[in-house]
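thought: fold this chain, then report.
action: predict
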Amino acid sequence: MIEKASFSRYGKIFQEDLIQLIYEDRPFADQITEVLDVNFLELEYLRVFVGKILSYRERYSTHPSAQAMITILRTDLDDEDEVVRKQVRDYFSHIVAKDLTDVAYIKEQSLDFCRKQNLKEAMLKSVNLLQSCSFDEISQTINDSLKLGSDNNFGYDYLADFEARFVPKHRLPVTTGWTEIDAICGGGLGRSELGVVIAPTGAGKSFCLVHLGAQGIKEEKVVVHYTLELQDTIIANRYDSCLTGYPLSDIINFKEEIYEEIKGLDGKLIIKEYPTKSATTNTIKSHLTKLLKRGIKPGMIIVDYADLLRPVVARKEKRSELESIYEDLRAISTEFQCPVWTASQTNRSGLNAEVITMEQISEAFNKCFVADFIFSVSRTVEDKQNNQGKMFIAKNRNGPDGMIYNIFMDPSIAHIKIMPHANGSTNGIVPLNPVALSASMQKDLLQNKYEKFRNRK
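observation:
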């Protein structure tokens, strides 16, 4: 029979000092309560005392004051044994007049003990998951346990941290390379933000992501580009063309010239290839962590594209899996403090659409809720023949959306630009000037396009 873990080997004084520290030090209480089991305490009166603290914190979402504890100990111990009631009250009277010593030692030892007990439980749970769950799910169980009690960021105290909220917040955006788009989204995609490119197959999602990555390189960022569909060398050639202007078909003939141009760039590009549906967001996080350990801090992350990632946890519906993937990518942007760009496929209705809205996003519409900036690229057969297309700003947390831009896209040199403004409109449907469309205007626009398409038959 396995002996129940407790603080007994640390002794009575250590346990009393630990509970006093939890009572007096709110940030430490925030940290250790993530991993503390009251049953670790050998003494009943300490379990009761700390239980009152935890109950108060859970009910009122704040740490109890001295006056609150006095009231609680006077009125809320009726269910306890008379001996325990006396011990609790005597203990409180004792710690009020006591100054703690060896605080650092108490914190280190107690946290180490609690975290190890939590890790043991996670490992035992993982043994039971071996037969029924994926490796990533088991890994996540262990990693979640390791995170508990380890974060030194205890949260924002509304009063204690009063001045902090008046310090200007800097998004540190990375330009999109399109002046018009930067103007409406605050200079580009900022750190801790997720951007999504929506387009049907063959419309240029990967080219858009390469264009955005190239702008990051020009801004001296470390761009980490994950490709789940194309070979890493193909992506690298597209960057060659985008950065230098040499045609993709003649890249091999301009090897020396290309190298002379790109060797002077202060930015850095790392392309990591994974087979389709072989990598998860945990795979990406692990790779990024390895880069950090080697002193390589990402300034922009590109995932080409999120729909081709494998979910960490298998779910019954594909849309639920996709939602979790986009949520994880958003979390990666926050954890690594840099923008993340990815792409999403449209459904069938987007194949021939002149303007693609969020209604045409494939499988999981809810992934739109997670993203900070979403734009779509639509190119009809005629547009492809003329190197043209349309860009629709579907979502923008940092400015207006519902805007349409005419674009020039030449895949032969991986070049994309927004066309200059012009007056007038095309068939009275798509304005050449960017214009913010209301919901009713968007509905009328789509209806007009449907009528136009039906009349062609």
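thought: worth noting. The longest strand covers residues 388-396.
final: tokens above.
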